[in-house]
Amino acid sequence: MDINDARFRRAAERREYEALSQYAAKAADSKGRRQPLEPCPVRTDFQRDRDRIIHCKSFRRLKHKTQVFLSPEGDHYRTRLTHTLEVAQIARTIARALRLNEDLTEAIALGHDLGHTPFGHAGERVLNKLTGHFEHNEQSLRVAELLEGGEGLNLTWEVRDGILNHKKSCKPATLEGAAVNYADRIAYINHDIDDAMRAGVICDIPKECAKGLGATHSARINAMISDIVTNSADMPYLRMSAGIEELTEKLRQYMFSEVYLGSAAKTQEVKAEKLICLLFESLCEKPQLMGGDAQPRIERYGLMQTVSDYIAGMTDRYAISLFKHIYIPKGWDKY
User: Fold this and answer.
1) Which of 244, 266, 288 marks a domain boundary?
2) In angstroms, rounded to a whole number, what is the distance separating the alpha carbons of residues 146 and 150?
3) Cβ(306)–Cβ(287) below 8 Å
4) pLDDT per position as a tens digit, 186-232
5) 260 and 300: one domain?
6) Rounded distance, CA 223 to CA 210, Å?
7) Does 321 share its domain with 187?
8) What is the per-residue pLDDT for 28?
9) Number of structural domains, the chain?
10) N or C: which end of the chain has fewer CB atoms below 10 A?
């Protein structure tokens, strides 16, 4: 095969026009990349973006970043990586049912949390306090556009838009981005319930929610997905029915009151926040601790932004290791 033979990619692009909804994003119609890139002969641009994300270092580091519970004892608690995979699965189910672009949906889902901090939202809160502004969705876009590999991943506009707008309060430009927006909420609410029950933080969910959405993990996810698909068929937008949306929000608020804020399982977050504060202070005083790659970024983005980027990219265990290196005295083995 001639490596420059593009008939395979063009065939894939034609199939999108033949099989997908009129409202689906088409790879051949992408608004493109910031930097021109020779098209792949085999993959569409959205397939290529998915691959670029899944092979990057920031994606691999999600394995050791907290989802909800810090350093849990047990193999079955979610991490930021398993959360990302669950979001991708849910979003692709929605996309396939509605004949949206699964490749674009998957790329957005896999990249949506690339910029998430160590120690979950505790890390996000403290960086926001220290810098005056920090949002993990904006940081995910920053990783994709600027930081990964020193120059970013050069993703298509549609993927970048979906990454930036995956939060509940945002409005993505594509239906694929909207599918990830919903999938993120569906995933974290339900897997956090599962983890909280495993940890003994909660024993059950409100009866109204169990009755309307389902008493089991799989039943609730199925109910939410099915409701979105049923209410969005042949529409130029995605939506839940008012009843399911209300129950989903009640379940989300229940998790905030019983798990995310003030539960016994979250007491360690105070220590995590203090750790990040001390690391931030130390790295601002001694930027050489960040290594040689940091210097060009300091010159380009400034010291505070560079320190924020560096900390946001850390895994939980690396943050703890660096803290020990800086603050914990080492014993002498010779006198």
Assistant:
1) 266
2) 7
3) yes
4) 999 999 999 999 888 999 999 999 999 999 999 999 999 999 999 99
5) no
6) 11
7) no
8) 97
9) 2
10) C
Q: Is the dihedral of CA 242, 245, 251, 256 positive or negative?
A: negative
CA distances (Å), origin 22, targets 25, 98, 227, 239, 283: 8, 10, 21, 17, 51
Q: Which two tokens stand for residue 333?
A: 């083995």
Residue 82 has pLDDT above 80, yes or no: yes
Return d(Cα 108, Cα 88) in angstroms, integer: 8
pLDDT at 266: 66
* Structural domain boundaries enclosing 91: 45-266
Model confidence at 299, in pLDDT bands (50, 70, 90)?
A: very high
pLDDT digits (tens, 9 = 90+) for 106-159: 999 999 999 999 999 899 999 999 999 999 999 999 999 999 998 999 999 999
Residue with tokens 């939202």: 121
Q: Which residue has the higher pLDDT, 4 or 67?
A: 67
Question: Domain ends where: 234, 266, 298?
Answer: 266
> Can you tell me the distance from the alpha carbon of 114 to that of 142, in angstroms, rounded to the nearest whole number?
9
pTM given for the model: 0.95
Q: How far apart are CA 117 and CA 298, in angstroms?
A: 20
Burial-class residue 252 by CB neighbours within 10 Å (0-12, 13-18, 19+). Answer: middle
Sign, CA dihedral 35-19-176-115, equals: negative
> Which tokens go with 41?
């002969």
Q: For residues 310-322, give the mean pLDDT.
A: 96
Tell me: do 235 and 133 sit in the same domain: yes
